From TrEMBL:
Residues 391-526 form the GGDEF domain. The keyword Ion transport does not apply. It catalyses: 2 GTP = 3',3'-c-di-GMP + 2 diphosphate. Its EC number is 2.7.7.65. This is diguanylate cyclase. PROSITE patterns: GGDEF (PS50887). The keyword Membrane applies. It comes from Parapusillimonas granuli.
């Protein structure tokens, strides 16, 4: 099935009102029923600032034939819906938004029987115009054109639950049988590290065979995109597989991959200008939905069982109506009403439990700040936004000085009270809704500050430092004999060092503060 999306429809000249209605009806019949559905998510994308495109450029783009687009199911960037027979995802939302802005039309071809390598080759051989989504490699760039990135993720090492596999870095992969999808940009690096006889290539139209090989023991581990696996794990119930290591040293930025056809270079340049000026946070929240999908499906299955129960009760009631008196009928009606009320309460309780579970999965149980998992998600999101907008991004790492002495002298219950008090200081010091405060682990906290330069980040750090001192909590075995904190600050203002570089620099500044005697702030600027 082929889907065509039109940026706009014009009524032909000379067609009257009735003729126009008939023509539009015929056009609607001729298009696939869900051709517009492919672009439902464009509303999740917004411009942070205007993008200037000349009238000459717009006219040239609108005169182009429909772009032939191929995609691969890689949620949350692109996900194939079997029911609607089309794709949705972050990459689709952004592509629809930009093409709509430029008045371009495109054909999105499912082509589910082709592998990733097949689809990339079609773009490189000019048999298709665009591939969604793809990470950059020098080899691919020789035969195609990459836009700026719109989404960042990492590779992860995946193993069966309970299997004794120890991975601390790339070099440890050499000790195991490793499976990867053929043609991914990570392939040359794996081939350098892992002996050839231990590498298993999977060139299937989906990644299911790769994960099945891990489950049945054909291979020890799979190396695969972390966010895509999380989505697949919940959608396809791979609950016996776990992510055992994230390869933070290998961030993957996903882009659009154009063929080198005439006119595409100027189109890619305009795409880059839009990608640098858009906010896709709503699209990311919409499509990073693995856990939500799992619970929605569970609720739907529960509702089906409830409906079957209600239907059974109704059938029994109808069978008895002919032989029962009015009093019996009223008793059954009352019983059915009570059962329906009970079922409704069960549904409401399940929905409420789902909401609480969502909150708990992002929250530290002691301080009620965000936890490490939620911080990692927001760091990736805010760093991707920094890449698009160029606005500075700051990170504070706050460490409570001599906290072990607190636990040793006063007990862990008092230590927990101290941590909650420090968490309150952070909440009161970092007040913008866009900022993110988290418990990073133990006595360490983080403050992620988007659109915040070095001076403002330093001012917030000083506010936190004063707030901790103002608590005046005793710590008698150290000097000074009260609770203090050391803070490391890092601000990115230019370049693309990677999100983990921001964490590493803030941590290095925290270490410098500790080495200099604690109870102080050290800061640096990257770029």
């Amino acid at each position: 099935m082929q889907l065509m999306f039109f940026a706009k429809l014009r009524r032909p000249a000379g067609v009257g009102t009735l003729g126009g209605v008939v023509a539009l009806c015929m056009a609607a019949w001729a298009l696939p029923a869900n051709s517009a559905a492919v672009c439902d998510g464009a509303q999740n994308v917004r411009l942070l600032r205007p993008v200037e495109v000349s009238a000459e450029q717009r006219a040239r783009f609108q005169a182009m034939p429909p772009l032939k687009v191929v995609a691969v199911s890689a949620p949350p960037m692109a996900r194939y819906d079997e029911d609607r027979q089309t794709y949705s995802g972050i990459g689709i939302d952004v592509f629809c938004f930009i093409t709509r802005e430029l008045g371009l039309s495109f054909e999105l071809r499912p082509d589910r029987d082709e592998t990733v390598a097949d689809k990339i080759r079609r773009v490189q051989e000019d048999r298709a115009d665009v591939f969604i989504p793809l990470s950059h490699s020098a080899q691919r760039e020789q035969r195609g054109l990459f836009t700026l990135p719109y989404y960042e993720s990492h590779y992860a090492v995946i193993a069966r639950h309970g299997r004794r596999v120890f991975i601390r870095g790339l070099e440890d992969l050499a000790n195991y049988r490793v499976g990867i999808v053929q043609g991914v940009s990570f392939q040359p690096l794996v081939q350098k590290i892992v002996p050839a006889e231990r590498i298993h290539m999977f060139n299937e139209t989906t990644s299911d065979a790769l994960f099945q090989a891990v489950r049945d023991g054909t291979i020890d581990v799979a190396v695969f995109n972390k966010n895509i696996f999380i989505e697949k794990r919940y959608r396809q119930e791979f609950f016996d597989l776990d992510i055992i290591h994230t390869l933070h040293e290998l961030p993957r930025a996903y882009r659009y991959y154009f063929s080198r056809s005439p006119g595409h270079e100027s189109l890619v340049r305009v795409f880059d200008r839009y990608l640098a000026a858009i906010d896709v946070s709503a699209s990311i929240m919409e499509h990073e939905e693995g856990e939500r999908y799992f619970f929605e499906r569970y609720i739907a299955q529960r509702d089906q069982r409830v409906l079957l129960q209600a239907a059974s009760v109704a059938a029994v009631m109808l069978a008895l109506l002919s032989g029962l008196a009015l009093l019996r009928y009223r008793r059954l009606t009352k019983l059915l009403a009570e059962r329906n009320t009970h079922i409704q309460r069960q549904q409401e309780a399940l929905q409420e439990a789902y909401k609480k579970l969502q909150t708990l999965s992002r929250t530290d149980g002691l301080t009620w700040l965000s936890n490490r998992r939620h911080f990692d998600q927001m760091l990736a999101h805010e760093y991707a936004r920094y890449q698009r907008t160029g606005e500075p991004l700051s990170l504070l790492i706050v460490d409570v000085d001599h906290f072990k002495n607190v636990n040793d002298q006063y007990g862990h219950a008092v230590g927990d009270d101290y941590l909650r008090a420090v968490a309150d200081v952070l909440r009161n010091s970092v007040t913008r809704s866009t900022d993110q405060v988290a418990r990073y682990g133990g006595e360490e906290f983080t403050c992620l500050l988007p659109d915040t330069g070095a001076d403002n980040a330093r001012a917030i750090a000083e506010r936190i430092h004063r707030g901790v001192a103002a608590l005046d909590l005793p710590n008698a075995s150290v000097e000074p004999p009260r609770l203090t904190a050391s803070i490391g600050v890092a601000t990115i203002i230019h370049g693309d060092p990677g999100a983990q570089a921001l964490v590493a620099q803030a941590d290095a500044q925290l270490y410098a503060a500790k080495q200099a005697g604690r109870n102080r702030i050290c800061a640096t600027v990257i770029g």
